[in-house]
Sequence to fold (647 residues):
Amino acid sequence: MTACLPCGQENSSVNVITPLNNISKGGVFDLLPTECLYAGMALKFGGYPVLLFKLPHVDVSMLKSSLSTALQRHPWFAGRLNVNTKDGLFEGCVFLNHAGVPFKVVRSEEKTAPERLEETSMMSFGDFENPRQVQAGLAPVMTVRLTVFKDGSGILGICRSHALADGTYTWAFVADWAAAARGQPLGGDVTNARKAISDTEVTDMNEIQNFYMTDIRCGFAAEKKPFRYTMLMAMMRAMDMIWYAGLAPELGRARILFSNADLDRIKRAATPPRGSKGDGWVTTQEAMSAHLLLSLGRALLTEGKADAVTGVDTWIDCRKHLGLPADAAGGIGFGVMRYMVEGLLDKKLWEVAQVIHEEAKLLTPEVAKKEFGIAIGMFRQGLGADLAFSGVQAQFNHATKGKFDLLLKLNNQSKRKLPDFGKAGGAASSVLTNAGPSLLLPVNGGVELFLVDDVFNGASNAKKAEAIRLIGDVASWPVGSDHFHAAKSWCSQEPEVPETTGEDNIASKLDADSPSIVTAMKRRLSSSFVAPSSEAPSPCKEEQEPAPQAPSLVDRLRSRLNSDAVTTEEPLKVEAEPQMVPQSSMLDALRSRLKSTDGPLEEPSKVADSEVPPAETSFIQRLGSRLRADSNVPAPLESPSKAEATC
Fold:
């Protein structure tokens, strides 16, 4: 159902969209006490966030009707809040009165939608409501603004109260709206999991106090003090005034694009090498968090400051840990995990990622349920405002180590799937939101980072620029790029060579053999070699010698052997041919082949111990001799000199 309202603008109109039928009208949607407080939080903290989607074409009528269909499964978005904040007790619900979602259509004089959505334009493309008015039931829970351009393209802006919908649930709602626009059926009830959250409540005040005193994110006693809620709301109003004036840092975050190839390179460099402690892998989010933290540290921290307090806060959707479906309705279905990294400047990228990975394991279903239960119990005791006020004041402090030298607050939404509204609007090509603090969002072919200014901790513009350069300069990393993060002057670092001998190292790389192993090795080297790009920037141009235009086979072999010794790339494999020699005897067979000047490779059983070349002739030299004999390469194959080992 729709109802027209006067708008006061010649090029715009407003309709109120209500659920398709009245089945749910007259009921209530109960809120958790934590959600009741969040309803009044400032726009800086996402109290009433926006999602902007760029659409290739729009059908206004279809978008409105499909929204009405989606509201049938999510009727609370068409209701109004009723929250009681007296005496510090946060109790409330949503009246399912079908007051509706205002849907404003604006006809722009511009020819087409902007190529890139800018944060400063969010207030132009979204209808923000005052969070305190929403909390009091005087403003709608959700608003929609559709800006239509001359060529038919559009910007769809969806604002909503965080009390009802956090990021995960909002994207689930948008997915339902898009499915309805494509004529697909929607799922069932999304509220049946709410009780699972409320049942986690902890009532033991001693347990609650002990948690907040010992948790590294807090470190303060939970006690009720007068006027805390009044002071908190005054703080929120001041922040919103800065926001509406366009002066909030969240409206001008540094933006850095990462291609899928960049992400793969970061993850490979952040993966712990074989033989290191732990389980030998990290997630892409952990790799990216490590890369961002380490790059920021290199640029912003004082070199040699061993006691720097550094860490990462990441926003984690806890529905899985609580046993809830991904589309479970709720405004506080997430938690914030803090990972402390000591000695940041002395660590390599993979070491930082490994620290984050190991600490992430601490978030178990039991821990998630306890944290949710303690927060609910805290609010039930009338201490919610005190907790929020103290939390805002101490957000950049460690419980025992004092003020952070560097704290990255990262909200990863890069795995969100852009909606496809079918004939009603097509597939969204980009998205923008004021969620944060720092944010990762999906883009075609990769992700985009929005880095909030707070992370620079008051650094100079020159240091900010250097930090942004280090973060974004992924494509120019050299092979073995984990050395880039070993120290600032990575070019002067000698490669780390495993303790195994040259013979053992090469033998371990040969997974199969054939009657023509030298030919197979040539084939492998030729296919895996990539000439250095003359256009790619290098962090150490002053020390780097020009690469040869036509590297010889021996040079390529030397490069491949050296890189295998210091990187975590996949092992060198020789293409298999019909007759296979057992891997256990590979080294003996290869030795015999290198000594022989003609004839096929002998079977392992025919290689006598007496035929092993004398020890004074190195394995690499013998291999080089054989390769030169087969390929007419005149240059001798030698172990890389110290000069060659750098950069």
